[in-house]
Predict the 3D structure of the following.
Amino acid sequence: YLILPLYSASSPLAFISGRLDRSMYLRLKIHDYDAYEFMNRKLPQSSKVMFLYTGNDGYYLDREYFYDSYYLGYTIKNLLKLSSNGGRVAYELKKMGITHLFINWYFLHLNFQNSMSPEERALFLEFATDYLRPMYVTGDEVVYALKGIGD
């Protein structure tokens, strides 16, 4: 009785029978799986990706990653509090070894709107505009290169 609901929710028969390969199956089940495949194919092995408001699905990523707390963004918020401009935010991320960011803009805006001052939000947008280069977009989620790294 306990297995049946899980089985029907995941519908693994197409995968188990070989009709769908792993990628196709995961693509059907995980809305942002294409972004992980993109990062696995296109980012250098030496990359370190910071996840911002994307959840913690790093096990799909074959690169090092840093997960910034489940939908709270403690690290980026602290960097914004300690920084006077977008360049300083970029510098601090580079010091942490971050080369790329994977951002869910919907959840970031939702959280930032309720937990940060207008000045901190403006500083993040300055940083994003001046120091992030979009590489892959899937809905509200975007993979970025930290400018000057991974170009």
User: Anything to note?
Assistant: The CA atoms of residues 136 and 143 lie 5 Å apart. The first helix runs from residue 3 to 10. DSSP finds eight helices and five strands in the chain. Confidence is low (pLDDT under 50) at residues 1-9.
